[in-house]
Amino acid sequence: MSRRRPLLRRMRPDRRWRLLLVLLGALLCGALAWQVTLLQQRRGLEQTLLVSHRAIQTEIDRFRYLPRVAGEDARIHDALSDPGAPGAIDAANRYLEKIVTQTGAERLYLLDAEGLTLASSNWAEPESYVGHDYSFRPYFTEARATGSGAVYAIGVTTGEPGYFISARVDDPALGVNGVMVVKIDLGPLEQAWAEAGQRIAVTDRDDVVFLSSQPGWRYRPLTPLTPETRSRLGASRVYDSAALDQAQPLLTRGSVLLIEGEGRAAILRGTPFENGWRLLIATPLWPAAAAAGATAALVLLAGLLGLGLADLRRHRQRLIALRLRQTEVMERKVRLRTAELAREVEARARVEADLRATQATLVHTEKMAALGRMSAAIVHEVSQPLAAMEATLTAAEFSLSRAPEQTAARLQSARGLIRRMQRMTKHLKNFSRREAAPLAPVPVVEVARSALALTRPRADAAGIQPRFEAPAGDPMVRAGHVRLEQVLVNLLHNAIEAVEPGRGEVTLSIRETGGELALAVRDNGPGIPEDVLPRMTEPFFSTKIGAEGLGLGLAISFEVVQQFGGRLDIRNHPDGGAEISVILPLLENRNGGEWEAAE
Question: Which CATH architecture has domain 66-185?
Answer without folding.
Answer: 2-Layer Sandwich (3.30)
